[in-house]
Amino acid sequence: MEKPVVILIFTTVIMSLECLVQSDASTHRYKGGDEVPLYANKVGPFFNPSETYAYFELPFCRPDKLEKKNESLGEVLNGDRLTFAPYKLEFLVDKDAKVTCKKRLTKEEVAQFRTAVALDYFVQMYFDDLPIWAFLGKVEKERIDDPNEYKYHIFTFYQFDIYYNKDRVIEINLRTDPSFATDVTNDEEVDVEFRYTVVWKETNIPFEKRMDKYTMSSSLPHHLQIHWFSILNSCVTIFILVSCLGTVYLRVLRRDIYTLAQDEEFSGNQEETGWKSLHGDVFRYPKFKYLLSSALGCGTQMLAVSVISEIILMVAILSLGVLGVFQPYDRGVLPTALVIIYAITSAVAGFSAVSFYHQLEGSNWLRVLLLTGGIFSCPLLLTFFFLNTVALNYGSTAALPLDTIVVILLLWVLLALPSLLLGGVSGKRIRSEFQAPCHTTKCPREVPPQHWYRGVITQMALAGVLPFAVIYIELYYIFASVWGHRIYTIYSILFVVFILLLITTVLVSVAMTYFQLAREDHQWWWRSYLCGGSTGLYLFGYSFYYYFERSDMNGVMQTSFFFGYMACISYGVFLMLGTVSFHASLLFVRLLYGCIKGE
């Protein structure tokens, strides 16, 4: 099975890298006078990144004929709606205060602009695949105490400062001039004239480094110090955990194992206490083993998706970045790659779930396979359809059109489901026994009464603290990128933090399982999974803190999108870390009881 898995991962990486390079097919060399494409993309409230609208939803100057760019799947998923802008920017052709259009705004259009300015709307465009942003207008609040007396203005003048190197576009800046603004405070018709200026400037920056501008903010020294401090803090946490586990092994387990290994019979003349008394029950199959198998299969898929995505991002940064063709900002590349990776790695989920289910002597593998396919995707699809309905009600570009929804469903039906079935059939054919080192007795041992702090909820709360502490600092930067306008590009540090998270989860899981067995509680199967997955619950709890304390997001749509998708992400983290925790505990229990002689 190792060879097919390697081929699967290699194919996934190649297909995803093709998606990364695909976005740069539109980068050209230009001659003097050639028109360089400028696309108007979207507008929306600055503090609500999910609430975006098509550029021409506002009464801007419209070209005679609206021409839309053919968008990729990832661009549509990202909410991009690229349309040719009314500004004509020819290569090396300067323009001074050229009139875009003159128009008379109706009362309704004035009210539309005023509402947009009040909500801090921004405008986004793309020039030769370079993103540019600008605020729509300004609000005069100085020396005005009454909000009803605020003055609202829209900017009517844009200046495009474009830097070039030979026949390549290197950089573009969009500036607005507050002195050219139209008052839209009152509900009355207003005459407005939109103008723009184009200034071309030569630069020595090579084309391969034109993206450094967008990655600079992530690589500032004080930001890197914070990231490295987070990694150092995580390493200290892991060192403390390893020291504690080493102390337990040297002082307790090693002594017990050595004593038991000297006996010819396990129950010799000594009284069995603690974990030593559970040799006949510790490998008793858990309740709802079909559900556990499905959760483990889906969690393995989440782990595969995370690892492959990190590998792709780092390869893209190292290789494509050197060639100068990697786009550090989000143009839908990552959503496309994630859709492909998730669909293909369904084979991993099917194989893991069915093979483990057969190890537990299960027979209804088709039920396990169907449950594996729906345990994460069904809640995700339900959340998506609800949020898409909300976005449609708002008229937002976040709402996916019907043809895109059909494409996603076809990918799921024609790629994800066959991959899931292929993995399930492979797991059924490649059977292996559970191979427990101790025999299981026929009658289950009664679990002695436990203190309240040894309950499932309390143990989950304790188990999730340290893994969450490992990622706490990095979470702010990730949230600011996903739910804000920051650009995150230091994926190497993110990968290191991810590895440290897995290591911490493994160590905490082993410790919690040992303490549970020491209290003669043999029902560790589900407990280890839930304790490991509890970090996902902490992540969802952090989302509340970020929304109310670290952001200015508001409104029904943005709130629905934020908490809806954060619930899905946290659920995926729960499944992934729960799987890691369970397999770590299973390996620990096997090694522990494999060192003694069971009856």
Automatic annotation (TrEMBL):
GO annotations of cellular component type: endosome membrane; Golgi membrane
Pfam families per the UniProt record, alphabetical: EMP70
Membrane topology: Multi-pass membrane protein
Keyword set, alphabetical order: Endosome, Golgi apparatus, Membrane, Signal, Transmembrane, Transmembrane helix
Residues making up the signal peptide according to the UniProt record: 1-23
Keyword Signal: yes
Source organism superkingdom: Eukaryota
Subcellular location: Endosome membrane; Golgi apparatus membrane
Keyword Lipid biosynthesis: no
Transmembrane segments: 226-250, 302-326, 332-356, 368-392, 404-425, 460-479, 491-517, 529-548, 560-593
GO biological process, one term: protein localization to membrane
Family: Belongs to the nonaspanin (TM9SF) (TC 9.A.2) family.
Name the UniProt record assigns to this protein: Transmembrane 9 superfamily member
Organism (species): Anisodus tanguticus
